[in-house]
Amino acid sequence: MTGTHPAPAPAQAVILAGGQGSRLRPYTDDRPKPMVEIPGTGVPIIGHQLAWLASEGVTDAVVSCGHLAEVLQAWLASADLPLRVTTVVEREPLGRGGGLKHAAASLPHPDRPWYATNGDIWTRFSLREMAAFHHERDATATLALARPRIPWGAVETDEFGHVLDFIEAPPSPYLINAGVYVFSAGFADLLPERGDHERTTFPRLARERRLAGFPLPQGAYWRAIDTAKDLTEAARELAR
Fold first, then answer.
1. Which strand ranges, in their side-by-side order, compose the sheet holding 141-146?
2. What is the pLDDT of residue 26?
3. 12-148+174-239 to CATH, choices 3.90.550.10, 2.30.29.30, 1.10.10.10, 3.40.50.300
4. Reduced to 3 states, what is the DSSP secondary structure of residue 158?
5. CB under 8 Å to 174, separation ≥6 — which residues?
6. Cα–chain-centroid distance for residue 71?
7. What pLDDT, on a 0 to 100 scale, did the predictor assign at position 2?
8. Is residue 180 a contact partner of residue 115, using CB atoms and an 8 Å limit?
9. If you ran DSSP here, which 8-state letter would residue 188 be given?
10. Which residues of the chain fall short of a pLDDT of 70?
């Protein structure tokens, strides 16, 4: 009896690294957001991402640059990288969907599946497991789902309004888009030339049951680096 072989995991990826990072100022005054270093590592966010992708079997990455692209390109040119990297520059803002489509056009194997990640995500989990999940569901697109901690303390009450407990930074009851994706080969054709795929392509795929959501495994590390506080927290978690 012959078993079905899982599809090989993607070996190519797009990193969306064109954002302004205005909430990370002054760190982003002279560099794009993915070039901000995680304190204590001496390595920018994108360096951690490329190392992670390479460890998951990715051999080719396309980095989509925008804001201060030349700073990112100079670092990529001088760094000892664990995979082949191509950069594409958005000369005018195309929106997230347009930027993704523009970058995907430079993937070395347009007829094969690919990963994508936002340039401000610092995470570690098995992309191969996510790719297998995507394949099993015959999805066109799969997004990783995280359950972030609410940044405030929560108050628990009973039906009479008595306060029962205080819970410091509880996990959110909702899953959120973790900014890491697996896409089938034909996905790039469904993206808008400009605009946001999360308002167009994703809702359409969801209606057609062709969009899957992969919950991050229990205990997987995930953080979006949006503010200076996120950098501090990341450094603290790293030290731990």
1. 84-89, 60-65, 12-17, 114-118, 176-183, 141-146, 211-215
2. 66
3. 3.90.550.10
4. coil
5. 147
6. 21
7. 44
8. yes
9. G
10. 1-6, 20-22, 24, 26-29, 239
Residue 158 phi, psi (nearest 5)? -95, 180
Cβ proximity of 194 and 95 under 8 Å: yes
Summarize pLDDT for 120-138 with one digit per residue, the tens: 888 889 999 999 999 999 9
User: In the chain, where are the structural domains located?
Assistant: 12-148+174-239
- Backbone phi, then psi, for 230, in 5-degree steps? -65, -40
| Residue 214 φ/ψ, nearest 5 degrees | -100, 105
CA–CA separation, 132 vs 152, rounded Å?
36
Amino acid, res. 36: V
Burial of 54 (0-12, 13-18, 19+ CB in 10 A): middle
The amino acid present at 75, given as its one-letter code, is W
Rounded Cα–Cα distance for residues 204 and 200 (Å) = 6
Give the residue among 79, 75, 52 at the shortest CA–CA distance from 180: 52
Q: Name the pairing type of β-strands 154-157 and 163-167.
A: antiparallel
Q: Is 71 exposed, middle or buried (0-12, 13-18, 19+ CB in 10 A)?
A: middle
Query: Tell me, what amino acid is at 166?
Result: F
pLDDT score at 108: 92
Render the burial of 161-198: b for 16+ CB within 10 Å, e for the rest.
eeeeeeeeeeeeeeeeebbbbbbbeebbebbbebbebe
Give the integer Cα–Cα distance in Å for 27 and 36. 7
Helix (H, G, I), strand (E, B) or coil at 166: strand
Residue 44, strand partner residues:
37
pLDDT of residue 211: 96
